[in-house]
């Protein structure tokens, strides 16, 4: 919903002089200038050569380095292409979809992957769920429902940007137990409930099979509620300080929002259809397990309603270039990351790490701390929380237990972090491409602040969480 909260031109003209001046700050003008130059370069069909050379050089150098003894040559080749693609996605010599498509092309050209394998993730539901979210967003914008909801929030909490941010964060957290899709929501609240992310039950299942100790719904919520609430309070405020909004205080905004709502009048027919479709889709997400309807099927059904009623047209869907670009690069990363796992590279990495840590002879607290950091930051190589859990959770839990870490504590910590690590990159979880696609945060800043927030979350969950887990008897 973030995309609907951007002030309109009319809003700018009626803000206080101080707020209007901040909107025209030099930093904002410089950011817009750089974005314009980048778009201009791409519109002329040219790649930015320095970033392109850096990306290719990364892949070529790694390609010709000798692979470790226990890593197959084809796995090493795929790793070199994957990392070259990641460098290209970070430096953006071309739009992200083009970079990812070139990466897939390199996989097929070098026989590292077959065509079917390289493009296999285009049949994965998660990239399509993300694309469908963009189409739904078009409906919100076109009908004006997005503006109506935004004005409602602004009228209640819009006297400060921080108050508005908190209202969104805690509203999202209230939905978390009932919507098991990170593509539909965000990171922190997904770590607080067993049913808040589709992969959480996988972690619980692997825990039961590895240490024969199940994690129940209430057990999960009880352990996560305190560090989760602290994160929900601290993280928005920290971002407010280190990446401040252009307009921090706008005491006239609530009044303006109410005036806008009066001007809009009652909900139109299309707004009502849009609202009903949203309720239908969310309802199917909540009850999907009972009705045997998965998330992407529910979203397709919702989009079908919008298409049939004319609220959104197929031509408008085709014009959503960001949706198709996101679908391309996200599917490409899922495919390459998946085959890194199938080729045994992730398994080799996991075993190498755990053998190294086990040989240090440290206390279980220090050993587990090292394991946590390696497990957490290895998510740079994953485009899916479920893939990360499936590839590394069992190995790290087994070694943590063998090194003396209380098994149930280790399982809970790894389960919680399997959600939090999704905020590291713009592809780490399903919702990240949607937020990034809105275009408000440059890629370098996303990765930079993603790392900063990851450190803060680790301090909160291992510090505050550690004290809480001691109090409730987890260790």
UniProtKB/TrEMBL annotation:
<feature type="transmembrane region" description="Helical">
    <location>
        <begin position="74"/>
        <end position="91"/>
    </location>
</feature>
<keyword id="KW-0934">Plastid</keyword>
<dbReference type="InterPro" id="IPR030676">
    <property type="entry name" value="CitT-rel"/>
</dbReference>
<keyword id="KW-0472">Membrane</keyword>
<keyword id="KW-1001">Plastid inner membrane</keyword>
<feature type="transmembrane region" description="Helical">
    <location>
        <begin position="321"/>
        <end position="340"/>
    </location>
</feature>
<feature type="transmembrane region" description="Helical">
    <location>
        <begin position="408"/>
        <end position="429"/>
    </location>
</feature>
<feature type="compositionally biased region" description="Polar residues">
    <location>
        <begin position="7"/>
        <end position="21"/>
    </location>
</feature>
<protein>
    <submittedName>
        <fullName>Uncharacterized protein</fullName>
    </submittedName>
</protein>
<comment type="similarity">
    <text>Belongs to the SLC13A/DASS transporter (TC 2.A.47) family. DIT1 subfamily.</text>
</comment>
<dbReference type="InterPro" id="IPR001898">
    <property type="entry name" value="SLC13A/DASS"/>
</dbReference>
<feature type="transmembrane region" description="Helical">
    <location>
        <begin position="449"/>
        <end position="469"/>
    </location>
</feature>
<feature type="transmembrane region" description="Helical">
    <location>
        <begin position="125"/>
        <end position="141"/>
    </location>
</feature>
<dbReference type="Pfam" id="PF00939">
    <property type="entry name" value="Na_sulph_symp"/>
</dbReference>
<keyword id="KW-1133">Transmembrane helix</keyword>
<feature type="transmembrane region" description="Helical">
    <location>
        <begin position="352"/>
        <end position="374"/>
    </location>
</feature>
<feature type="transmembrane region" description="Helical">
    <location>
        <begin position="153"/>
        <end position="175"/>
    </location>
</feature>
<feature type="region of interest" description="Disordered">
    <location>
        <begin position="1"/>
        <end position="27"/>
    </location>
</feature>
<feature type="transmembrane region" description="Helical">
    <location>
        <begin position="380"/>
        <end position="401"/>
    </location>
</feature>
<feature type="transmembrane region" description="Helical">
    <location>
        <begin position="187"/>
        <end position="208"/>
    </location>
</feature>
<feature type="transmembrane region" description="Helical">
    <location>
        <begin position="272"/>
        <end position="291"/>
    </location>
</feature>
<feature type="transmembrane region" description="Helical">
    <location>
        <begin position="220"/>
        <end position="243"/>
    </location>
</feature>
<feature type="transmembrane region" description="Helical">
    <location>
        <begin position="47"/>
        <end position="68"/>
    </location>
</feature>
<feature type="transmembrane region" description="Helical">
    <location>
        <begin position="298"/>
        <end position="315"/>
    </location>
</feature>
<keyword id="KW-0812">Transmembrane</keyword>
